[in-house]
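S., here's the first fold you wanted:
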Amino acid sequence: MRAPLSVCLLARDEAERLERCLDALDFADEIVVVVDDRSRDATEEVARRRASRVERRTYAGDVEQKRYCVSLAKHDWVLVVDPDEVVSEGLAASIRDVLERAGRRAGERRTEGSTDVVAWELDRITWHLGRWIRHGDFHPDWKLRLFRRSRARFVGRDPHGRVEVDGPVGRLSGELLHYSYRDLGDQIARIQFFSDQAAAALVREGRPFRLRDLVLRPPARFLRSYLLKRGFRDGLPGFVIAGASAFYVFLKYAKHWEATRPRDEGPGD
């Protein structure tokens, strides 16, 4: 019997990885996929073969897109995953267990001060550069992805919004397998995209550019990832990841400067 759970995904040009993601979600009663209308591969076709509901929608920012996807769910318990993530068997068993226990308590009368857990964090582990990364900026990487939507909302700044809940949060055993990057080139391309989004959000919020952000934050991010969070224990991949993280921070603030600096007229104008 499938769990009374709605799984929500956003997808764009993810046909290659989406099928593997959906294969691991057979335990859920409903799968909702919102396809970015900029998608140009077979993402929508794959989703329509496997999902319960598929909507094609103009991209409105990560936070708003996820709000919309969750609004389509028919169950109160919602699991949000990305196409490049796979729910491991151990994690699936943990999810089924907590939903069964929640279901058994559903008929009981709850007091106003009930301490029932309303959301769960998942232990995400990333495969990159030929190994599972267990240190640095990539791990530990607890993500709040399973929640009661009646007690939760998406907040924050694009492209990295978060789920905010009204009630206790627990942590599940089992791992959410994250196949984030195809290679280093793919990671750099993502850094370009996400730094664009982050810089645009700073501009929208009216945040003034500060030189110290551009000068100090990138090396601070490298030191945090490589030394403080022990990225060195992942060998050379840990060093590369720390450098890429610092590069993302550098680009975010460099693009913020570029977007807010006075525009000079061209030669001869």
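And the second, which I think is the more interesting of the pair:
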Amino acid sequence: MNKFMVTMLVKTFIILFALLLPTIGYAEEDKSKWQKPTPIFKQDFDWIKLTSDEWLKGDIVSMYDEKLEFDSDELGMQTIDLDDVSELRSKQWQSIRMFDGTIAEGYLVLKDGELSLVKHGVTIRYEFSNLLSIASSGENERDLWDGYVNLGINLREGNTVQFDYTFSAGMQRRSSSSRFKTDYIADYSRYQEPETEETKVTADSERLTSSYDWFFNPKIYFRAVDFEYMADELLNLKYRIHYGIALGYHIIDTSRTSWDVNLGPSYQKSKFLSVVDEVNNSEDSFGVTLGTDFTFEVTSDIDYDASYSVQVIDEASGGNIHHFQTGIEIDLTNDFDLDLTFYADRTENPKEDSDGKVPEKNDFRLVVGLSYDF
């Protein structure tokens, strides 16, 4: 009986193995042909596929110097090396600029190393290695702009009564061949003497800067407009207006680090709040402006930046005027950031006021603020 049972089990095993063998072979053969599914491309998003086979949906912000800025629907703003992008599809028209100066618009498709624009049902292919930049098309003007608003407040009551605030805001427009940028910052501080209850203002200034850059190639750009307006009560400045042009150069430009320098002639006009000789309450001067900007992505959530500029003008207008700004930006959510910024300003020859008081040459401040990006 036992022998009969063993024989039946062996026969059953042989039959089952024979039946499963083709299935196993088919599975092995089919596995070699299996491919990862491609997502359904909803027209509400731009899509990129990374070389790691990961897909991201969101909005193309811009691409320059082989760095793609992409606002992911889930991960927020991302800066991606173009070498890490294997496929890209745009939901709207994009504008591309080639090294030879060609500018074209259309729906953008990048796949298997081939670059194409689809416009009015016609597909035109371009040499991918000749691509200089990508930006939203002029047909979608709203997509060319982005900006931020930042506010830092310090309020103290009790033995010390003090109120400080720093407000800043900025806008930027980027196209395939140019960049316009404007920033505004206002700083105010006052405190109350405990004994006399007299209020004293310790800071009251504002600064507006604007620039317009035109890109020659990945390394060189021309700053056609370099404008600054500044007013500072404690520096005895009713206003100071600066105009200039410059030639810029990208020293370093990688997916994580950028370093630019620019140099050019400038003109400056200053008007003072009060002077000993009221006839000479304004000065103007031609000069030279040198500037540099540095950014470094510490981690995916922390960015470091620093900028420095010096205006070399005559002594009556202030001599050398320095402005330094550095800090870190920490991503809190997709649109909100925590900013820690240090400012340093120096005027070599500040203007004496009508009481004979000469303002301090140096101003320093550290600001902690919350910013909103849009």
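Why I say that: DSSP finds one helix and 21 strands in the chain. The helical segments are 2-33.

Talk tomorrow,
H.
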